[in-house]
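User: Sequence recovery, please. Input:
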C-alpha cells in the first residue's frame, strides 16, 4: 500500500522558502543563535545548550522536537550539564504542550539510530507529542494518512502563547 496525501496548500510557503537552502542538519540550522524565534522558523525556545522546535512533519498537532544545540548522535555522549539542560527543556516542552492542548496523554521519547526510527540519526532529539483518546483512526490505520486539524503556524502561535517567559 502506498502512502496517500491530502492536499495541504499551506505547506507551499515552506517548500518555496526552503528550496535551495543548503544545510547539512536542520537541527543545527535552527540551533543557530542568529536564527529567529517565530512562526517561520518554528522555533519556540533556544538556549545555550538546547533548542525546541515544532516538527515540520508532525505525527499530530503540537508535535515538538527538543535537541541539544551541539551535533551529537548519542545520548550517552552528552556532558552531564548538556544532558541536564536537555531534560529541563523536555520538561518545559511537556508542560507547554499540556497547557496549550490539554491532551489525554503525551508521548516523550528518543529514536537513537536509523534502525530505531531516527529520521535524523546524527543529531539526537526528543519527541514531545500530545495524544488523545481515539487519535488513531481509520485514516491512519487503513489509508496510512494523517489528517491534522491545524496549520503549523496556528500550532506555533498556540504553543508560543503558553511558553514561559524567560
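Assistant: Recovered sequence (166 residues):
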Amino acid at each position: 500500500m502506498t502512502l496517500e496525501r491530502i492536499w495541504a496548500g499551506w505547506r507551499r510557503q515552506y517548500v518555496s522558502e526552503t528550496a535551495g537552502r543548503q544545510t547539512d542538519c536542520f537541527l543545527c540550522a535552527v540551533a543557530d543563535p542568529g536564527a529567529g524565534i517565530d512562526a517561520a522558523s518554528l522555533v519556540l525556545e533556544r538556549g545555550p545548550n538546547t533548542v525546541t522546535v515544532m516538527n515540520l512533519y508532525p505525527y499530530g498537532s503540537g508535535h515538538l522536537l527538543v535537541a541539544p544545540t551541539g551535533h551529537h548522535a548519542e545520548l550517552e555522549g552528552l556532558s552531564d550539564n548538556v544532558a541536564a539542560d536537555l531534560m529541563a527543556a523536555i520538561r518545559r516542552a511537556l508542560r507547554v504542550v499540556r497547557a496549550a492542548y490539554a491532551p489525554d496523554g503525551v508521548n516523550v521519547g528518543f529514536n537513537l539510530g536509523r534502525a530505531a526510527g531516527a529520521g535524523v540519526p546524527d543529531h539526537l532529539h526528543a519527541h514531545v507529542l500530545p495524544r488523545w483518546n481515539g487519535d488513531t483512526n481509520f485514516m491512519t490505520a487503513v489509508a496510512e494518512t494523517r489528517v491534522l486539524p491545524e496549520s503549523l503556524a496556528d500550532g506555533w502561535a498556540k504553543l508560543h502563547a503558553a511558553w514561559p517567559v524567560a
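Residues 80-101 form the longest helix (22 residues).
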